[in-house]
Design brief:
38% of the residues lie in helices and 25% in strands. The chain is of the alpha/beta class. The strands form 4 sheets. The chain has a 7-stranded parallel β-sheet, sandwiched between helices. Strands 1-3-2 form a 3-stranded antiparallel β-sheet. Strands 10-11-13 form a 3-stranded antiparallel β-sheet, covered by helices on one side. A hairpin with a 3-residue loop joins strand 10 and strand 11. The longest helix has 15 residues.
Length: 253
């Protein structure tokens, strides 16, 4: 409900131009304090600006704050391109971790031409890889629930403990936002632990992120800029952004 309310608040601000805390409180039937906390999160994400007693929007309606199914469908060409690039970074007989997400799923779809060990907690990826003879699949066990984009994933303390029993050559991590100062962030507060577990067992971490996710900041940080220096993205990344990130020491593929 929290993410849904944040989306609705953002939409209202975009439509109205400016709206007060009291109006939002009455609209959503929550306390002004709750609304102020919501507005703080939206302001931290860089999509609204607080005013005295209210808020104004600074993000266009075409800019997607929260990922969803339709957003992922629109970016399918970019995600396939990212997956194709990422595939070239995987060596035969290596062990990789595949984080949950639509881009890692695209990578899973094109795996199978050579032997590779895969560790994952994403049910869609498990279904994709389960019948491929060249894939040695390790399925992480734990609590099954829907992720922020609607796919089924496994999470919880048992899942984290199981991941940490293994070691991997490379982990491929998804993200909601990338920022050269703030690092890698997502919008779901409880979903960073699995990513942190993958980072802890892999010799190398690679982030798969489409170009729209650059220079954005979400609610929850799961990795610093130093922890993931390689980012695979699509060819729509602006040249000034590409040069900036390279200057900051990132390897942009």
């Amino acid at each position: 409900m929290k993410n849904q309310r944040l989306e609705m608040i953002l939409e209202l601000v975009q439509n109205e131009g400016e709206i007060t805390v009291e109006e939002l409180s009455q609209k959503f039937k929550v306390t002004p304090k709750t609304i102020r906390l919501d507005l703080t999160k939206l302001e931290d994400a860089g999509v609204i600006r607080r005013t005295f007693g209210g808020v104004i929007g600074i993000q266009s309606k075409n800019n997607i704050l929260f990922p969803n199914y339709h957003y992922n469908e629109r970016k399918i060409i970019e995600k396939k391109a990212i997956a194709t690039k990422a595939l070239k970074l995987i060596k035969p007989n290596s062990t990789i971790c595949l984080d949950d997400g639509s881009t890692t799923l695209e990578l899973a779809k094109i795996l199978g031409d050579f032997p590779v060990n895969v560790i994952t907690h994403d049910i869609n990826i498990i279904n994709e890889l389960g019948n491929k003879p060249n894939i040695h699949l390790v399925i992480i066990g734990g609590i099954v629930e829907k992720s922020e984009i609607g796919n089924l994933i496994v999470r919880g303390e048992d899942a984290i403990k199981m991941i940490k029993r293994f070691s991997a050559d490379t982990c491929f991590i998804g993200t909601s936002c990338v920022d050269f100062k703030n690092g890698y962030t997502i919008y779901q507060l409880g979903y960073k632990e699995i990513k942190r577990a993958y980072l802890s067992i892999a010799k190398k971490a690679i982030c798969l992120a489409d170009s729209d996710k650059f220079n954005q900041v979400g609610f929850t940080k799961f990795a610093t800029p130093k922890e993931i220096k390689t980012i695979v993205t699509d060819d729509n990344l602006k040249i000034e952004t590409l040069n900036l990130y390279k200057q900051k020491g990132f390897n942009i593929i």
